[in-house]
Design a protein that fits this description.
about 110 residues
Length: about 110
């Protein structure tokens, strides 16, 4: 084989249109779910604050503090889960009977 020139080309074509469409739909579904979870968390925060107005804003400050600590610890990125957890850490207040822990007068 003195002359080693190519004599042809072999190729494979694949239509990935459907796959790309499915990936885009999954991204949209994920974003929709993220928004729904965020709205649910906000409703929980509002419910806790209505139950105990003296601590209004506490959940947001706790979430911010948790994120600041994580950054100071050098965690690679602050994820949404940490912020959500900080926001609803007092969710148990909703299950305390009003007779035991009555809401302050308005």
């Amino acid at each position: 084989m003195k002359n080693q020139r190519p004599v042809g080309i072999i190729g494979v074509n694949r239509d990935i249109t459907e796959r790309r469409k499915a990936v885009e739909e999954l991204k949209q579904t994920l974003e929709s779910l993220r928004k729904a979870v965020g709205a649910t968390i906000q409703v929980m925060v509002s419910a806790v604050e209505m139950r105990d107005p003296y601590t209004a804003g506490h959940q947001l400050r706790a979430a911010n503090l948790a994120c600041a600590i994580a950054m100071e610890m050098g965690l690679p990125r602050i994820n949404r889960g940490l912020r959500m957890a900080g926001s609803i850490h007092d969710i148990g207040k909703l299950s305390i009977p009003a007779e035991i822990c009555p809401s302050p007068p308005s």
